[in-house]
Amino acid sequence: MSETNNRVGSVGAARNDTWRGFKDGIPIMLGFVPFALVLGAQATQKGFSAIEVPMMTGLNFGGGSEFAAVELWTSPPHILLIVAITFLVNSRHLLMGAAFAPLMRGLSHRQALSVLFFMCDESWAMGLADAHRRHGDLNRGYFFGAALGLYATWIIFTTTGALVGPFLGDVTRFGFDMAFPAVFLVMLAGMWKGPLAARPWLVSLTVAGATHVFLPGAWYVPAGALSGLIAAYFWARSA
After folding, report:
1. Which residue ranges run through the membrane (predicted)?
2. pLDDT at residue 125 greater than cutoff 50
3. Cα separations (Å) of 2 from 6, 9, 11, 12?
4. What distances in angstroms separate CA 41 from CA 60, 153, 169, 194, one per listed residue?
5. Distance between CA 88 and CA 1 in Å, rounded?
């Protein structure tokens, strides 16, 4: 009987964690909506169908790289160039996955891969912040509550953008493209721990900005990520 009660209790706790993650992710899901509509609309303007758009956004699930791929899309497409730029833009996920690795020690190989597949910038930040608050490992219920909500929102509204895009024309004239930086500003505000802790952010911003000005392509993404990581490591060692 006690074993059954423990099992029921663990299922109830996991369900509560999942609901908590979903609720915490709702503001970000709302921020995804205009951004997803813009991407879907722009993709159809480049010749994507309403079926191809959710295939791209569902298999890749990385907004920045998808915008870059759509921007570079031609007929016929330069596949190697698009793959290279997609890798560069998504290279930050290597560092994000490395930050998650110590928090996934209790997960099986399949469970860890599922976490990494659904991981995006926002769900990564939420899962990491929740683990640090609890001083424990990654809470899978909380993470998937947020991540699956974000994933579904992204696919649904990129598809909607693909369907309505031909009727709206250039949707950026409505200012929808500001949704992406707005979401990240909200995330940074939630992770703020004072000016000293934010020094790596400044380093990353400066290096990324300088790289964007002086180097063509998406090299500013790995440059900003790596410089911020090195700065954080340096200041942690000096503390």
Report:
1. 25-44, 142-168, 174-192, 213-236
2. yes
3. 6, 10, 14, 15
4. 18, 16, 8, 39
5. 54
